[in-house]
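Annual report, structural modelling task.

Input specification for the pyridoxal-5'-phosphate complex:
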Amino acid sequence: MSFINVLSEVSSNVWWSWQPEVWQLFHELNPSLWEEVGHNPVAFVERSKDAGEGYEGREDLHAKGQELLTRQRQYLSECGPEACMEAGKLHRAPVAYFCAEFGLHESLRIYSGGLGILAGDHMKAASDLSIPIMGIGLFYASGYFQQSMDENGWQQQRYDEANVNELPIELVCGDDGQPVEIVVDSGEGDIFAQVWKMNIGRNSLYLLDANVEKNSEEDRALTARLYGGDRRVRIRQELLLGVGGVRLLSALGVRPGALHLNEGHSAFAPLEMCYTLMTQQGISFDVARRRVARQTVFTTHTPVPAGHDRFSLELFEGTMAPLRERLGLDHRTFHDLGRVRSGDTRETFCMTVLAIKMSEHRNGVSNLHGEVSRLMWRGLYPTRPIEDIPIGHVTNGVHMPSFLAAEMRELYNKHLPEGWEQEQHNPEIWKSLLDVDHRELWSVRQQLKRKLLSFIQERVSTSTLGQGEGGERIGSGFREDVLTIGFARRFATYKRATLLLKDMERFKAMIQDEDRPVQFVFAGKAHPHDDGGKALIQEVIRASLDPEFRGRVVFLEDYDINIARHMLQGVDVWLNNPRRPQEACGTSGQKVIYSGALNCSVLDGWWAEGYDGLNGFAIGNGEEFASADAQDAHDVKALYKVLEGEVIPLYYQNDGGDFSEQWMRRVLWAKASLGWRFNANRMLLDYLRGSYLPASGSPSV
Ligand SMILES: *Cc1c(COP(=O)(O)O)cnc(C)c1O
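The model returned the following structure:
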């Protein structure tokens, strides 16, 4: 087998998205090509082939390529650990996992943020554990936007179209060799779609793509962008995802054991499933609905009202009438499926309500979010006491191998028992880390920080901001012996990216402190329609350009998984200050556990259940206020109190040595106390035992 074919086979399965050694190999073969193709292995191979490049001169790397291919083949041919057995029945009837976005790797731009990364992590962990899950989503050729800044620090959006020949996807064809065609009926005629298949380890993800000739111009663009359109585009995308997704299952001859609606976008799927049962078995809608609901799992992801899709009845009826007619429902019955108050024609149609009504297994994504969701939706169960509202929780977790630094993995390999990775959800495993020598850990941490600093220099030198006036200053004051705090997430207002800047005097004093300075790295995108979020970015950028901050504040443009990985691995502290209780879970803070930064966060989302007083830092005490202003005023003080009173002193408390033993102790305790709980394997096993097996009718293990 030629070396280029070895590379080609390795790139064909997105298994590589959690193999830093694969990225390293491509980087070593041709660093500039690797950057040019945005870390995309398929594009790298295709362009190498076009250039007639077989890397004959690089025999030094051929063995590595072969080794990775052997490892991949072995992974694909064997069954994972225990869950392989436990998943039992799902091997014949898999879980169909619906989501509007999947975040697998920076080169696959079909995600925007937390929801997508979570779905990607879910697919990856399902593969690692051999839990049969079929992903169903949409193919966005232009994906989510790419971010740059104009000279005023105002966010600009750019959409680049991906080349399907340079992606790890293949067109799904039927027995006749022709591409499978999915048709969904909307109130304005049929929408057609083709289907792409992406292999994610042992499982597959199917992506519906409306860019086919049979469609009108408008519909050809339907799936071009993620979250880029208006309400009309949104409902038509959701129609395609839900109804089209179920039709796809039929076209593939798959009878799913369970449907998992990851967020309400796909809530039309169980309705189409009802229709399938009604036609196959001649049963009524009510009977079909009960059966489908028993099989359906719904995960809600946010308490923020704007995060719950609502459609005007006019738009809804105009788009969904054909489905209503097929189900034989009158307007009121159909509309009531998406309304809290039956018969109230002033209430718009809500996808979350539909999902709740069409599923029997429902969960929020952290303990606190479960509580908040029960409160939020109690109107659907007016006669029940709050504790009996049937919405539970499964706390999110992250796919560790996708985010763990290679240097830290080496340290784990040395100190953790063999097979630790398969056992990562076992608390005992992580305890072995408590004996790690502090100096050894410190040296790995500093290595990671140096990598981040050089990454920052590189990014700043190519950024639109870096070229302008003040360009030399941005990031120029960054030093490896300075406490480094990272903040990266969507610039949604409730996440309060600029909370720190609400007390400029204290911010300045903290950064300018001669003995114990602090440096900050920010990144994040605002939704294209969110001017409030864009204004927050602008505020951060202005601070980064202000000479008073001595080049110790930097904003990295175009936040994506690549930037996330560098930041998560290299900072000392991960800052999270949302307005409680609006952060349903928040997963970026979970990622830093594994590479050794400490969380400093409001007691919201996962941190409300993860923080134990010693494994990181808490901003405030979980207080909530009726007014946002009062809450912000309180939380700014709490934030400075913990930074000035705990974080900074502890980091610089070196007792004459060159680092803080106390800090290292805390980092190890964070790993020991949190590592086993907040990974995606634990999450998958929770879903398997608590939702998938009960939904598919297997006895719970
Ligand atoms: C993990 C991750 C997120 C989600 O982070 P939150 O803490 O939930 O805001 C968003 N974007 C990227 C690129 C990530 O890696």
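The two ends are 45 Å apart (CA to CA).
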